[in-house]
Each structure stands twice: as C-alpha cells, then as structure tokens.
Amino acid sequence: MAEHTPTPWYAMASGDCDWVVMAGGTPIADMTTPTLAMLEPNARFIVRAVNCHKELVEALEDAIKLINDMNGCHGCADNSADEDNSRRNAVAAALAKAKEGTVDESQMLLQDLDEETL
Containing domain of residue 93, as a range? Predict the structure, then answer.
C-alpha cells in the first residue's frame, strides 16, 4: 500500500462554498457537505487529526510500554495487574484503530494482542 501524503496538511476556503484540505500546495480532498456550516469545522478536524496522528501513535506505544513495565513491579496491590491489563487493552485498541483504522473484539483480549505491535 502506498504511503499517505506527507504532513503537515492544512485547510483553506475554495470559492464561496467549498473547503479544500491541502499539503504542500497540492489538494488532498475537496470538502462538500449538505450543511455549509459544517465545511470548515470538518476540514479543520481532518487536518488536526492527520497532523497529530504520528505523535498520538507514538504516545500510545509509550503508554503500553509503561503499563507493561508497571505490571512487573513488586509490592503492587493485588488488583493492580487486572487494572493495568484493562488499561493496556484500552490503549492497545486505540493504537490498533490509529494504525489500521479498525479494531475487532479479538484485539481487545490481552492474550490475543500481537506483542510486536505492542
């Protein structure tokens, strides 16, 4: 699969009733919607999501490593491992969505998580 257009992306008005998502002067997406009031907010939301995606994925990967490290702590409360696993599953599910766009129920189970991804 080809890589996406490099960031940063930006949004700009195009005519009276359109917005365009751009990267380096190249149009990425023409924004149209039945509700004109939603054009600019939608375009700006796409740009924010795209431009912070890499940092969010890195932060989620770091969070999983931290939770894994905390699971190995000695003297933790008896229920802390269960709480950590729950947090790890939530972070892993968010990471899978960010990397692949979807997550299925099997990715929610700790034992089914791909350790290379984590």
Answer: 10-112
Asked whether residue 3 is assigned to any structural domain, the reply reads no
Among residues 18, 15, 24, 25, the alpha carbon closest in space to that of 43 is found at 18
* 9 CA to centre of own chain: 16
Note whether 97 and 103 are within 8 A (CB): yes
- pTM to 2 decimals? 0.61
Q: What percent of the chain has pLDDT over 90?
A: 16
Torsion region of 30: left, alpha or beta (phi above 0 gives left; psi -120 to 50 gives alpha) = beta
The average pLDDT across 62-80 equals 70
